[in-house]
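Why do we bother with holo predictions? Because pocket geometry can differ from the apo form. Keep that in mind while you read this record for nicotinamide-adenine-dinucleotide.
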Amino acid sequence: MKTYAIAAIPGDGIGPEVVDAGVEVLEAVAKRDGGFGLRVDRFDWGGEYYKKHGRMMPENGRDLIRKHDAILFGSAGHPDIPDHITLWGLRLAICQPFDQYANVRPTRVLPGITSPLRAVDGPELDWVIVRENSEGEYAGVGGRVHQGSPLEAATDVAMFTRAGVERIMRFAFGLARSRSRKFLTVVTKSNAQRHAMVMWDEIATQIAAEFPDVTWDKMLVDAMTMRMVMRPQTLDTIVATNLHADILSDLAAVLAGSLGIAPTANLNPERAFPSMFEPIHGSAFDIMGKGIANPIGTFWSSVMMLEHFGEQAAAARLMRAIEKVTGDRRLHTPDLGGTARTADVTAAVIDAIHGANV
Ligand code: NAD
Ligand code: MN
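The structure, written out:
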């Protein structure tokens, strides 16, 4: 029997609350399925670790998780530490060296959840956003000089490579092809950014020729926000740069009901490194320690992990269990307008996993 090794990195804030819940649910679904096992190793890296050791994870941290089949991540972000240190020291320190260049973010309005788009005619959202996850605006290229003086200057250079754009376009067209509508929207800003974004558009056109069965269109990112709200039914698969997709996917998450529900997979499609699965939300300082964090984003991310393993039956079972639970408004956490607690939602999903009808 195959046993998958999972590196759990809860991080800070509500990260440990939702990752602990995610591990419980994964173990329940593995037990119910019976065809595979899980070994979960927990790494307490993050803000508290930083306070003790002056870094977010040990120097050999990546070597400790390189051989795992997948990473389940909570959140990087601590109230006492600047965000650029926590982000670059942990999440990006894993994503970028492990070449998890395709960040996949599905959005759907789950049963029982009310989208703020309910006033729009037929507000059915069923999107997947593909975020370029290795370069672009978050390449880390830039510098800061004359700090504190009136001459102070700073740059963040968006860096796009042909190889990087080609592979994310190929991934996005391939994902669009695998979905029933076979339709891709390429988000751009080539009117204002006349170098890299023009290359981005040209490469999209070129890769499109490899996928004659996929229809596609192009959308400027500012106009895209309007289209997501006003004409959500006209979208299916979406590809965008690191920064654009970061912003658009938070919008997508709330249009689907709450940031607490949205999942993501940071994929290394070649499987040379482990891929990383995480809810898209952050540490949520305002609710940490209260036991009311919505764990659904982590559960849905766990579904994506099981799909990545090829455990389709277990993945589908967990998704059905999630949808059964969201369908019952008594099991909604406060971000969804309910009064349920993280532990209630977790117990109900585990119950549903063991139930006969899911
Ligand atoms: P956030 O996602 O932590 O919170 C935004 C709002 O959404 C808050 O009101 C929060 O209570 C709510 N929320 C988020 N997740 C929720 C959940 N599961 N259940 C219920 N409510 C939820 O974003 P922020 O406030 O901008 O950032 C807080 C910290 O998290 C910062 O340090 C930031 O850098 C970090 N962060 C990390 C990641 C990551 O590691 N991937 C992503 C985003 C933000
Ligand atoms: Mn974000």
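The pocket of manganese (II) ion (ligand 2) is lined by residues 246, 250 (CB under 6 Å).
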